[in-house]
Amino acid sequence: MCSTNISKVCLSSFGGRIDEIPGICVDNFNIINRSAYFLSHCHTDHTEGLYSDELLDSLEENVDTYIYVSEMTALIVEHEKYELKKYLKVLKLGEPTLVMLRSMPEENIEECVITVTAIPAGHSLGSNMFLFQTNNKTILYTGDFRISPNDIKKYRDFHSPQDRNEPIHLDTMYIDTTFLNGEHNVFMRRTEVIDYLTSEIKSWLDRDSDNRVALSLSAKYGYESVFNEIYKRLRKKVYVNDKIWSLYRKMPDKVIGVTNDETKIRIHVCHNKYSHYHHRRCVPNSPNANYLYIRLSAMKWQNCSLEEVPFKSKDQGTRLDVCFSTHCSRSELVHFVNYFSPKKVVGFPNPYPRCEGALVRKNVSDFQFSPKKRRHRK
Question: Residue 173's beta-bridge partner residues?
Answer without folding.
Answer: 140, 345
